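Chapter review. Work through the record for DNA-3-methyladenine glycosylase I before attempting the end-of-chapter questions.
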Amino acid sequence: MAELADGLTRGDDGIVRCAWGGSAPDYLPYHDREWGWPVADDNRLFEKICLEGFQSGLSWLTILRKRENFRAAFAAFDFTVVAHFGNADIERLVGDAGIIRHRGKITSTINNAKCAVALKEEFGSLAAYFWRFEPPADARPAMMDWATLRANPTTPASVRLSKDLKKRGWTFVGPTTVYAFMQAMGLVNDHIAGCACRDQVEAARSNFKRPG
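Structure tokens for DNA-3-methyladenine glycosylase I:
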């Protein structure tokens, strides 16, 4: 059997995946059915950018294992609801052992919900806003290798999006956090060359109707 390139792994099912996708059982369905597939649902987009903020300083696996708890705590990330959370909700969330009890990240999520409401009013949807920052097809190599991804956790597009979000009042949205969001929500396809999901995700992106 041919040796796999750096950044790939072959699962017990014989499928070749990005190495991180086979590193824990919780990652398998997330890697195969979620990560990189294009998303236009506003609540999912809001959820992901907030959870990426919570992940700062932690592993995504930690957040993924608590994701259902986060959804219950933050009204399924309906930002029109979260925008109205007050001090009592903050204290409730700080005391919730099922999530990451970081007061700054909790208040950031509420602040960002208010900013998301403003974005929806301006652009019609969060999806219409975020997809404006999809990099053009010729802006990046067609297939990113593991070394490139590891060495460059930001891109010019993620820097632009980060700056624009901060200008609009969002917090915990640095360019690395934003790039992880863009990768997960399908604004780029960073399943690396050789991963079985790479072509599936690219086909989904080709058929995806860009919002706005």
